């Protein structure tokens, strides 16, 4: 069940709980707060609709029949999913909560919990998602910039990064069997393509 109310068109609160009453209550409360909500009665139902890249967070019941919350968390981690999880449970203990947190959960709330506490955890999870997306976007931009380099230019960058102290045009030219003037030409093209103005900027960019 998906509610069209949303604070961010790309962010969804996924609720997975086998208790129909709790699911309905959470959907109602979160929708009134302006969140886009998708609710599922089991981990299997959720996985049937979930796709990598979906943003937001997962409000996940720990003690469901079949695949339980920790098993779903493990499955998502193995998939490489970057979906922050807020666990909710009526009978979880300290070992379970520690295990969930160690595996990357935002928090582990015991029922009954205050709505304000859940909202706070969801906002934390959303912020984590935003930061992950920003990091991914920067990484993709960097890959695109380096993808514009020729194989020779990439080789020169690799030598500069691996040993900055021996990165003069003369030293690189000697190692590659080309002239220093040719290296100078390649270095100028590298700087232009990567949008950097100094060797220090180049090394910092390549080391990210």
Automatic annotation (TrEMBL):
Residues 142-208 form the HTH luxR-type domain. Pfam families: GerE, Response_reg. One of its GO terms (biological process) is regulation of DNA-templated transcription. Keywords: DNA-binding, Phosphoprotein, Transcription, Transcription regulation, Two-component regulatory system. GO terms for molecular function: DNA binding. It comes from the Bacteria. Gene3D superfamilies: 3.40.50.2300, Winged helix-like DNA-binding domain superfamily/Winged helix DNA-binding domain. Residues 12-126 form the Response regulatory domain. The modification 4-aspartylphosphate is found at residue 61. Signal peptide: none annotated. This is LuxR family two component transcriptional regulator. The lineage of its organism: Bacteria, Pseudomonadati, Pseudomonadota, Alphaproteobacteria, Rhodobacterales.
